[in-house]
Amino acid sequence: MKFCPHCGGLMVPAGHRDGKIVFRCTRCGYEEVIESGEEKDYTIVGTTPKEERTITTLRVSEAKRKPPKTLEEWEQEREEYREILQELLQEELEGTEE
Ligand SMILES: [Zn+2]
């Protein structure tokens, strides 16, 4: 929102001039030319950071959340553990046989 420096009236975009935006006072007709780049920065600051923050938070929580182990995965892990134990046991038995 822009206000007229002369009368304090509300200034509204009245058109473009040389790639710039012309704001005109609704009360006294005073005109002010604003760089269109400036105007873009203005709108970006107002809207984007909030959205970006939400996306980042979502990504972080998704990365942190590990999928729970399925029963098959547990079973497989137990099987592997049993194989190692059996190998160790066999080695020990073979060692004491002599
Ligand atoms: Zn004015």
Question: Could you walk me through the main structural features you see in this protein, from its secondary elements to its overall organization?
Answer:
- 57% of the residues lie in helices and 21% in strands.
- It has helices at 36-64, 71-97; strands at 2-3, 10-17, 20-25, 31-35.
- Strand 1 (2-3) and strand 2 (10-17) form a beta hairpin.
- The chain has 2 domains: 2-65, no CATH class; 70-98.
- Residues 42-48 have low confidence and may be disordered.
- It has a 4-stranded antiparallel β-sheet with strand order 1-2-3-4.
- The protein has 98 residues and is α+β, with helices and mostly antiparallel strands.
- The chain has 2 helices and 4 strands.
- The longest helix is centred in the middle third of the chain and has 29 residues, at 36-64.
- Bound molecules: zinc ion.
- Zinc ion binds next to loops.
- Residues 4, 6-7, 9, 25, 27-28, 30 line the site of zinc ion.
